[in-house]
Amino acid sequence: MYHFCSKFRKKLIFLKNFKKAIAICKVLCYYIWVCGGMPDVPSQTEGDPCIKCEIYMEENEMPNIKSAKKRVKVIAKKTLQNKMFKSSMKTEIKKFYAAVATGDVTLAQAAYKAATKKIDVAAAKGIIHKNAAAHKKSQFTKAINGMQK
C-alpha cells in the first residue's frame, strides 16, 4: 500500500511490518521538522509521527469480517461522543467549584443544578459509574452546605 506524506511528497511503501512503518514515519517527520518544513500538525514535536501516518496505521488494523468492521467504526464514533460529553461534564464541575470559590450562594446553586444534571446523564449513559456520580453529588452538596453556614 502507498501513503503520501503531505509535506514530503514521496511515496512511502508501508509493508506488513507496522513497527518498521512507524520507524520510517518517525524518521521522515523528524527530517521535515529539522529542515524547517512545517509538520502536519502545529502541536507535533520532534520525532513524533504525523497524524496522517497514525490514521493510516489505525485503518490497516481493521478486522476482515464486515460486522466486526462496523463495530470498530461504531465504537470509535461512540468513544468520541463519550469523550465530548465527559469533557463538558468536567467543565460544569469546574464552573461549580469556581462558583463555590467566589462565595456567591445563588451562583453556586445554579452551577450545582447544571453540574448534577450533567453527572446524572453521564451515569445514565454509562460514561461514569453510578457510585462515582453519587460520590460527586455528595461532595457538591457538602460544598453548598458549607457555604450556607
Describe what this molecule looks like in 3D:
With 149 residues, the chain is mainly α. It is 69% helix and 4% strand. The protein has a two-stranded antiparallel sheet. A hairpin with a 6-residue loop joins β1 (2-4) and β2 (11-13). α3 runs antiparallel to α4 (105-125) and α4 (105-125) packs antiparallel against α5. The protein is elongated, with a radius of gyration of 23 Å. The model is unreliable at 1-16 and 30-42 (pLDDT under 50).
Largest sheet: 2 strands, antiparallel
**What is the SS-derived class?**
mainly alpha
Oligomerization state: single chain
Tally of individual helices: 5
Summed up:
The protein has 5 helices and 2 strands. It has helices spanning 18-34, 51-59, 66-102, 105-125, 130-148; strands at 2-4, 11-13.
Q: Secondary-structure blueprint of this entry?
A:
Elements: E1 2-4, E2 11-13, H1 18-34, H2 51-59, H3 66-102, H4 105-125, H5 130-148
Antiparallel strand pairs: 1-2
Helix pairs in contact: 3-4, 4-5
Structural features:
mainly alpha, 149 residues, disordered N terminus
